[in-house]
């Protein structure tokens, strides 16, 4: 994605390209095959939803062909994980690869042990405690309940990004706000859940017998097979 005259321009395919991904179902199939897929272009050529879809389909008039809408569809179905997983930017991880990804990113820590060892902030713990109690919440409710209000805690967005990067939380749905008349308005807002709530605790922890380095090497080796022209460095930096 580049900016031209103040407008976002996607670096995707021509709408007539037969190889482009054309639907949310096709995108799900691709993610399940590849295991990991950032939303936007990065250092690994072809490794993004942006580069695999029609350039003019984003934020268009047809939601069935809009990848920005597809991310909402996929997150709501729960078949793959969606969140800020790649260099603090959004993307997808398949169910198959999620336990290995979590083992790599968590480095042997569940959240409680990370907090007890002084490696997580009390602000992150507030978010985790609220999601443990409520299971899933839209971001604006989670923000308020965790005390990130006008005169309260600061840095909510940074905390949320870090918890997603560490795979402790994930986007579980998108919903629009409702007015006092119960009418929907505005953009869809992400709802968040604990990763264990989405996939199950036993499943998310199923690769904990590995160490972080082993898990990372398996991911990089897998992606190098899928993208043989990419460098080890660029794939490592991306994931």
Please outline the helices and strands:
Layout: E1 2-4, E2 7-9, H1 24-34, E3 36-38, H2 49-52, H3 67-77, E4 80-86, E5 89-94, H4 98-106, H5 111-116, H6 122-134, E6 136-138, H7 139-145, H8 156-165, E7 169-178, E8 184-194, H9 195-199, H10 201-204, H11 212-226, H12 232-238
Antiparallel strand pairs: 1-2, 3-5, 4-5, 6-8, 7-8
Short account of what is shown:
The protein is of the alpha+beta class and 239 residues long. 43% of the residues lie in helices and 19% in strands.
Overview of this protein structure:
A hairpin with a 2-residue loop joins strand 4 and strand 5 (89-94). Helices cover 43% and strands 19% of the residues. The mean pLDDT is 92. It is globular. By secondary structure, it is an alpha+beta fold. The strands form 3 sheets. It has a 3-stranded antiparallel β-sheet with strand order 3-5-4. Strands 6-8-7 form a 3-stranded antiparallel β-sheet. Helix 4 packs across helix 11 (212-226). The protein has 12 helices and 8 strands. The chain folds into 2 domains: 1-96, no CATH class; 97-232, Arc Repressor Mutant, subunit A (Orthogonal Bundle). The longest helix is centred in the C-terminal third of the chain and has 15 residues, at 212-226.
Notable features of this structure?
alpha+beta, Arc Repressor Mutant, subunit A, 3-stranded antiparallel β-sheet, 239 residues, 2 domains
Text of the CATH class of the largest domain = Mainly Alpha
CATH architecture of the largest domain: Orthogonal Bundle
Order of helices and strands: EEHEHHEEHHHEHHEEHHHH
Main sheet strand line-up: 3-5-4
End-to-end gap: 19 Å
């Amino acid at each position: 994605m580049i900016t031209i005259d103040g407008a976002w321009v996607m670096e995707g395919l021509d709408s007539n390209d037969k190889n482009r991904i054309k639907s949310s179902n096709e995108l799900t199939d691709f993610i399940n095959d590849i295991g990991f897929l950032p939303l936007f272009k990065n250092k690994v050529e072809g490794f993004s939803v942006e580069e695999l879809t029609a350039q003019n389909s984003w934020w268009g008039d047809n939601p069935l062909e809009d990848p920005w809408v597809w991310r909402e569809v996929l997150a709501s179905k729960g078949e793959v994980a969606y969140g800020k997983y790649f260099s603090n930017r959004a993307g997808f991880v398949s169910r198959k690869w999620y336990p290995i990804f979590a083992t790599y990113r968590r480095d042997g820590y569940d959240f409680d042990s990370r907090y007890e060892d002084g490696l997580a902030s009390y602000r992150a713990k507030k978010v985790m405690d609220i999601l443990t109690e409520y299971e899933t919440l839209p971001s604006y409710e989670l923000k308020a309940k965790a005390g990130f209000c006008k005169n309260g805690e600061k840095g909510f967005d940074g905390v949320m990004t870090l918890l997603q990067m560490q795979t402790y939380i994930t986007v579980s749905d998108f919903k629009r706000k409702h007015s006092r008349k119960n009418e929907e308005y505005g953009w869809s807002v992400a709802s968040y859940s604990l990763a264990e709530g989405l996939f199950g605790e036993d499943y998310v922890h199923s690769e904990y017998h590995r160490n972080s380095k082993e898990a990372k090497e398996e991911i990089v080796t897998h992606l190098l097979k899928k993208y043989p022209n990419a460098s080890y460095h660029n794939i490592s930096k991306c994931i």
